[in-house]
Design goal:
24% of the residues lie in helices and 14% in strands. By secondary structure, the chain is of the alpha/beta class. It is extended and about 75 Å long.
């Protein structure tokens, strides 16, 4: 049961359009997961969604990965106010009281975050999942807008006159063509 001093819980993403919108935000990649996040304009709290594709494994393995990530996310958010709590692999291990009074937890940013699991998340140490999500949350919820523009031409379009190689005249002497 949750106490009154616990860190706030994150909401859930449930609709496809929320997942798609989060894909347009910032990204964080690790061996175990990819995290996409988009800051929202409203004053609601953080919402998290999980995706595990069928390529990762069968239903039992996918569900186990989702459960591990859900709990790692919960522990990372609970430890947000106390960085030393990230060193513990289990959520029921109390922080050292000699370390001083714990700081109050930081407020959760109003953002939508999608965690896309990869196969190594099934066997990875639990503490590494917590650490990955904590780092990812810091990266994807930075203020400053969506993903930075990487430059270059937009996908699906060619630079130049708009003609493809098939439409271009064959190489050779241009004067020899009637």
């Amino acid at each position: 049961m949750r106490g009154t001093n616990d860190a706030p819980r994150a909401g859930r993403l449930t609709k496809r359009r929320e997942f798609v919108a989060a894909a347009s935000g910032r990204r964080f990649h690790s061996e175990r997961m990819t995290v996409q996040g988009l800051l929202r304009e409203d004053d609601a709290s953080l919402r998290v969604g999980f995706t595990v594709t069928k390529k990762v494994g069968n239903a039992v393995e996918r569900n186990r990965i989702k459960r591990r990530l859900r709990h790692a996310t919960r522990d990372a958010l609970a430890a947000r106010g106390a960085p030393e709590a990230l060193d513990h692999a289990r959520h029921d291990v109390a922080a050292d009281p000699a370390a001083g009074a714990p700081r109050p937890p930081d407020p959760l940013p109003p953002a939508d975050v999608v965690v896309i699991a990869r196969r190594p998340a099934l066997v990875a140490p639990y503490s590494s999942l917590i650490d990955d999500f904590a780092r990812a949350l810091h990266v994807v919820t930075k203020p400053g807008g969506a993903r930075p523009d990487r430059g270059g031409a937009p996908r699906g379009r060619r630079r130049g006159s708009g003609t493809s190689r098939r439409d271009a005249p064959p190489p050779g002497n241009p004067e020899a063509t009637p």
